[in-house]
Design goal:
Helix content is about 25%, strand content about 20%. It is α+β, with helices and mostly antiparallel strands. Strands 1-2-3-5-4-9 form a 6-stranded mixed β-sheet, with no helix packed on it. A 3-stranded antiparallel β-sheet has the order 6-7-8, with no helix packed on it. β2, α4 and β3 form a beta-alpha-beta unit. The protein is globular, with a radius of gyration of 19 Å.
């Protein structure tokens, strides 16, 4: 799916970020056309749930919804807009809306549910801002089925060799390298304008570890209010609940 930076990089307008201009120069015309042609949303039917995925929100890939959003913002994420259109996966009457929505953009994983709706953020594989690991979500259920069946949302965090990644970035001449290193090593977004002492920007030892156990959540039945569960931490038992 198309994200905000996919649009920025593939668009013809001037970029204020030197890193963005560098990425654009590194891509071929074919690469840029592929990015521009990515769909804004993806939908699927899974164990009787209507699942919609997009980058930032139901409005566009640029309209951000943060983890500490309002109840109105939560509800709006499940609406049909000019950007999303009606929910069409699996057929059905016009005007259907999703009951499960997943997105990215903020690079922080979490899950919220309420009134029969489930909202989750998958975090980020390449630049997660909660832990120094590749974060992603696995949806488990019966594909293409309108019948209610076991369904779960699983959060995973996989450590990788950050020093090797940063060595390649430095070798390739990536602009704003220190800010990128800060994000990967410390989970500090470059927009916060924070800087680490030189000793903390270098000399980190890569540690090879097995994948962190996955924690699974299954939405509970509809209930008043909106309850939140944070994504799994670095350790802890696997939790799995089925409807």
């Amino acid at each position: 799916m198309r994200g905000n930076w996919d649009s920025f990089i593939s668009g013809g307008e001037d970029l204020s970020s030197e890193a963005g201009r560098w990425v654009r120069r590194e891509l071929s015309d074919g690469d840029l056309a592929w990015l521009a042609g990515l769909p804004g949303t993806h939908e699927l039917l899974l164990s009787g749930r209507r699942v919609r995925l997009f980058h930032a929100s139901q409005a566009s890939e640029f309209d951000r919804v943060r983890q500490n959003h309002t109840a109105a913002e939560f509800a709006a994420m499940f609406t049909n807009t000019e950007f999303t259109g009606d929910f069409t996966a699996g057929g059905g009457p016009a005007g259907l809306t999703p009951d499960v929505v997943g997105y990215g953009d903020i690079h922080r994983a979490y899950l919220k549910e309420g009134r029969g709706l489930t909202l989750f953020n998958a975090g980020s594989v390449g630049n997660h801002l909660s832990v120094s690991a590749a974060a992603y979500v696995i949806l488990t259920g019966v594909p293409g089925s309108a019948e209610t069946a076991p369904f779960s949302v699983s959060f995973a965090q996989t450590p990788y060799d950050i020093d090797a990644e940063l060595a390649i970035a430095r070798q390739q001449g990536l602009p704003e390298y220190d800010a990128y290193a800060l994000e990967l090593r410390e989970g500090t977004y470059r927009g916060l304008k924070q800087a680490l002492p030189p000793a903390r920007l270098g000399g980190h030892r890569a540690v090879s570890r097995p994948q962190t156990p996955v924690r699974r959540y299954a939405p509970e039945s509809a209930r008043p209010g909106v309850g939140e569960r944070p994504a799994a931490g670095r350790s802890g038992p696997v939790v799995s609940r089925q409807p």
